[in-house]
Amino acid sequence: MDRINKAKLILWTILGIAGAVAITRFIFGLGVTTNLTDNTPWGFWIGFDVMGGVALAGGGFVIAAFNYIFGKKILHPIARAAILTAFLGYVAVAIGLLFDLGLPWNIWHMIIYWNPHSPLFEVGWCVMLYLTVLTLEFTPVVLEKYPNIKLLSIIHGFLYKIRIPLVILGIMLSTLHQSSLGSLFLAMPYRLHPLWYSPIIPVIFFFSAICLGFMMVMVESMTSSYLYRKEQEIHILGKIKKYASYMLIFYLFVRFADIIIRGAGSFLFSFSWGMSLFWIEILLSCIIPLIIFSMPIKKIKISILYFGAFIGVVGVVFNRLNVGGITHLNNLTEIGSFYFPSLMEFSISAGVVSAAMLIFFYFVENFKVWEESPFDNLVINKASKFNSFKVYLGSNPIVNRTKFSFSFIFAFGLTFALISGGEIHSSGFDKSPVTKARGADTLLIDGNRDGYGVVFAHVNHQKLGYTCGYCHHINKPDDKATGCYECHDDMYLIGDAFRHDWHSSSSGANLDCFKCHNKSVSKGMNFKFSNKKATHICQNCHNKIIPLDSRIKILKTYKSLSYTDAMHSLCINCHEQKLHTDSLLKQIKPNLAQCSKCHKNFSVFKKDKKLFQGKKENKWVVVP
Amino acid sequence: MKAILTDITKCIGCNECVKACKVTNNLPPDKPREWQKTDGLSASNWTSVLHNGKYNLRKQCRHCVEPACVSVCPVGALHKTETGAVVYDSDKCLGCRYCMMACPYGIPRYDWDEPVPYIKKCILCYHKIKDGTISQPACTSACPTGATIYGERDELLKEARQRINAEPDKYLDTIYGEKEVGGTNVLYITAKDCPLDFLLYYNNRIEKGKELAGMPDLNEAIPITTKWAMGAVPFAFLGMGALMSGIYWVINRRNKLQSENQKENQKQEDENG
Q1: Using one digit for the tens of pLDDT, what is the confidence trace for A84-139?
Q2: Does B227 fall in a domain?
Q3: Which range marks the domain in which residue B244 is found?
Q4: ipTM field
Q5: Residue B181, by phi and psi: left (phi above 0), alpha (psi -120 to 50) or beta?
Q6: Looking at beta carbons, which residues of chain B come within 8 Å of A622?
Q7: Taking CB atoms and an 8 Å limit, are B68 and A331 in contact across chains?
């Protein structure tokens, strides 16, 4: 039981990590857990969990077709395992989707609110129906175990009778949604790279799903043979290897023919991010597997065959990721942001896969998925070997359960502890956008994060007699410093200059409170931290007033800002107010509050170019 | 259909429209995050003013004549109203964010920081105009220079054409939104030295200097791109069913005949033997 139990231990640990992250995701939302942005709203969960997952589960319909429809009886021994893999794959897709959806409890809305124009609507329906079909296809395996209960055996008999129509229905549904997953991307021609965007992308998706189906069945068969120390099913693998090679050659041909006919051939050899991703994908999904599969089955080492099939699986999933998101950033970096999945996204995906694998092992061990029992080849008790766990944790089945529970709880707790509150509350928000300084006293504070700073005379504020804490220290949600508007109450902006959580947290500066707060003044529990006497000034530690990471740059040339900047461009408000309050002004300048009377054809923003050094010329930025 | 015409040359970037939009739609203050730097739109900012040092440009939902977001939403949470506004029904939404992916202008925004997030975008003040609380969207009524105006789409197109014809040296001879992605209900006219092609994702998507390969036409509505695939669905479904049944029948029959032949052969052999 060594290999399988080691594998299970790892899977339970991953599941524990994913469990803690799952709770974070549902309590705090997508912004905290993922790196998704408004420019890249779909990420790893769609690319891998949903699109990759559906493709990985394609083995079910491919093997079912070959076994039941084309009469290739040689595949019969692995048909049940393939259908189980498909079933669990689709359950995993559904669970993964629940994490990705913003309002997962509304997922059933697809049943009552219809929009038949939407490819996603069709995918949703097909997946729901196919999941039902797969359940019905697999139920007999479960029912077999209870031949004495009459009702169950009647159901079993009925399901056995309708198995061929079920298989055909499953193939029909699979054809539809495997290809419709590609149709999803027909609607976004501007996002995909020309090497992937094709009018026939649904067809390409369908063919690649068949390739992946074969290779995934090989991987699954070899993995479980390895884990349960079964004999490798060499003759079946040889057969599938042959089908997979034919399909891969066909897929490769369609792929390149499509690119050349469309006229995108020039992109194949234009050195770019997209081109390299494309060639990596083709190398992984087609070329390496084809080379390995071309060797005769009897000469090839099982580890090499495993490598070939596994690389092929990775390659096709990589295709789904490319279509689903990676290539988008090439096109969108000009206007958008770079996306790379966060650790939390990876751990949820890994957790979903682990759960599916654990359930697979459960079914294999408790039901007749394979023709022989998985325990036949296993040496359960090695009496000669001393097992220290056994002494402390009990007999063999219990020791495993204890180990699994322990690893799950340990991973869950550890992850929960590592996801710190500070990260949750400040994740995604910008750091202090204090941009440029003139000398060392005047800062430009970019309160509304638009790329423009407002003149802030730091020295003058210090002279007013407040402590640093007076401005830099009041903790509010999403904001770690007092906004200017706390004093200047005609302002509405927030700042983020001093990170108290970083200064105090063990993963940050790890300071004792009284490193900054004066112990002698702050007696008892109800002292005021922001009191001048109670707090040391920042300069005590920061010898230069410019703290690290504060994005302050010292300009050599002294340039003053325009009045518009200083007023946050809210010119019109004052003008209106003046006009209403000052009756004299109303007579002299009746058009004072109508911008266009004075500002006719020119912009109000005639700024010195040097002030915006580093910004691309003609780049559109938000007006402050 | 109602529409908005924005004249880039008239906009002075006073941000009154942004403020009016916030007040009218009761939007919360911004929670600034990285990507807002690029265009200022967010779940709490449905319109924003950009400037490039010379001109100011107001961004908002284009309310396409044939909207991509409406056609791709699996539950029909977005729909096009009779006035031309594309509005959102949060009760139906399941949060798949396909609309954000499909929008050719990248407009819909998401409540990333909420545990119960919704799609947020300009709805052309549809509900308030329908109630009769206001007669035109908050942004257009707030504009002090008349840079952005509200009216019937046909009339605004005429008006735009008139302005371009009156001052051909000043204006670029294009009405943005007249034809692109099947036409939009928010139109732009702009100065000669300030083309707005970049607003459509489409124009940013290729590696520079290369022609589009296999891409649909720029003026084609996005829903048309998925049409053939969706139209082929019933045929693919039934065709696959028929094909599989046919193959099953043929192979099954062949197997049966084979086994019968074998039996007969055996019988004959037995008789002979």
Answers
A1: 889 999 999 999 999 999 999 998 998 998 888 899 999 999 989 999 999 998 88
A2: no
A3: 232-273
A4: 0.89
A5: left
A6: 36-37, 39-40, 48-51
A7: no
